[in-house]
């Protein structure tokens, strides 16, 4: 009964909310022409040190007041920010310069963030409205199965059979790649059947023990010690499954792409607008993934709501789902009060809208959850949880990273 109620609740939350003043046309995925992002030249760089500490909150971010004194970004500025680094599994690194074609500037929104002293992080606002996904049927099915865990402690989301989208700060602090990112791994959700596979391995061990019964006692003792260790490890995994906690199938990352707007080095601070990264897995998975979409404005969000799931560190090994309304937006950021803790950064923020000329509804990723920031809103300090929007230019860049060219990136 509880599972049925929980399923009904999630279904209701996922459905499009339409009041009397809004029509289905307002909540539809609109096909948009995407600018072309063309790779121009690739340079080899020195290998990273991989010595940075994970950094969640930026020291300085130019806000609406300081933006008034700055000119709009030129095409060359955008091309510089959208150029990107690629770091490979062997530790080598390249820089690729890009050209933007067919770009049309978008109208300026009413809000951007400004630097402020780092204060107490308040990522849960009032009553905690997060839901731990414990039921196996939900956990291993779309959309929750698209959430992944990074070995650096963040979350991410599957966007193809071999690609994961996450936050750039999960692997890079703006100056160097963080500790542990050289051998970065991605954990995919996996529920274990009780005893499945374990007895077969035990049977093989028993056969080996019979065939080697005449070996020295010291070797037998070592075997028994190793067996006990494996039994304890297997027992812990089975207990996690019994408790509703997932196990993870860990996969190595083949390469990582980060925009230069974030990886600026020592000369400039990273820009929050570019806090996103793409990871290519060493081997493909067989799970259903979530497609990319271009972020609509707040007025085009059903009920003004967004959704995302991640692995919050205060709920060990549990997948945590939340939804909330967006409070404000800029061209590149969504400001909201979704309850979230560290570990959930890098999660894919998604919507469920109707597909054009079709009767079905579809979820797409429209932003990446970046974390907690203090921002200046019309001269007043406010704290928000912030997500980086997938704009047409960012869609073009991520699509280029996935496919190697822009042939499949003309519409989003």
Automatic annotation (TrEMBL):
Residues 192-246 are annotated as: Disordered. GO terms for molecular function: serine-type endopeptidase activity. Residues 1-20 form the signal peptide. It is found in: Secreted. Keywords: Disulfide bond, Glycoprotein, Hydrolase, Protease, Secreted, Serine protease homolog, Signal. One of its GO terms (cellular component) is extracellular region. Belongs to the peptidase S1 family. This is Inactive serine protease 35. It comes from Bos indicus. The gene is PRSS35.
């Amino acid at each position: 009964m509880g599972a049925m109620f929980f399923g009904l609740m999630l279904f209701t939350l996922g459905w499009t909310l339409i009041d009397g003043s809004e029509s289905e046309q307002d909540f539809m995925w609109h096909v948009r022409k995407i600018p072309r992002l063309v790779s121009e030249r690739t340079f080899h760089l020195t290998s990273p040190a991989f010595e940075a500490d994970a950094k969640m909150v930026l020291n300085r971010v130019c806000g609406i007041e300081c933006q008034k004194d700055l000119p709009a970004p030129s095409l060359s500025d955008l091309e510089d920010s959208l150029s990107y680094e690629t770091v490979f599994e062997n530790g080598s690194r390249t820089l690729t310069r890009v050209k933007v074609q067919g770009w049309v500037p978008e109208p300026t929104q009413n809000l951007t963030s400004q630097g402020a002293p780092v204060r107490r992080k308040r990522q849960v606002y009032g009553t905690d409205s997060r839901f731990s996904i414990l039921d196996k049927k939900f956990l291993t099915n779309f959309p929750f199965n698209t959430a992944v865990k990074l070995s650096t402690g963040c979350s991410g989301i599957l966007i193809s059979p071999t690609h994961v989208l996450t936050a750039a700060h999960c692997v890079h602090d703006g100056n160097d790649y963080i500790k542990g990112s050289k051998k970065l791994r991605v954990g995919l959700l996996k529920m274990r059947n009780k005893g499945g596979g374990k007895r077969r391995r035990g049977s093989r061990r028993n056969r080996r023990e019979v065939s080697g019964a005449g070996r020295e006692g010291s070797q037998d003792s070592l075997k028994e010690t190793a067996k006990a260790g494996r039994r304890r490890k297997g027992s812990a995994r089975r207990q996690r499954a019994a408790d509703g906690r997932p196990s993870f199938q860990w996969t190595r990352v083949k390469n990582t792409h980060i925009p230069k707007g974030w990886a600026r080095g020592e000369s400039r601070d990273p820009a929050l607008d570019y806090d996103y990264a793409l990871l290519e897995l060493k081997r493909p998975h067989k799970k259903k993934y979530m497609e990319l979409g271009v972020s609509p404005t707040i007025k085009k969000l059903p009920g003004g709501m967004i959704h995302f799931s991640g692995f919050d560190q205060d709920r060990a090994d549990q997948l945590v789902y939340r939804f909330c309304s967006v409070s404000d937006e800029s061209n590149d950021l969504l400001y909201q009060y979704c309850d979230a803790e560290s570990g959930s950064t890098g999660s894919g923020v998604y919507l469920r809208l109707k597909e054009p000329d079709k009767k079905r509804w579809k979820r797409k990723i429209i932003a990446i959850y970046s974390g907690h920031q203090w921002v200046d809103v019309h001269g007043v300090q406010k704290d928000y949880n912030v997500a980086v929007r997938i704009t047409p230019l960012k869609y073009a860049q991520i699509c280029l990273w996935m496919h190697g060219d822009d042939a499949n990136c003309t519409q989003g």
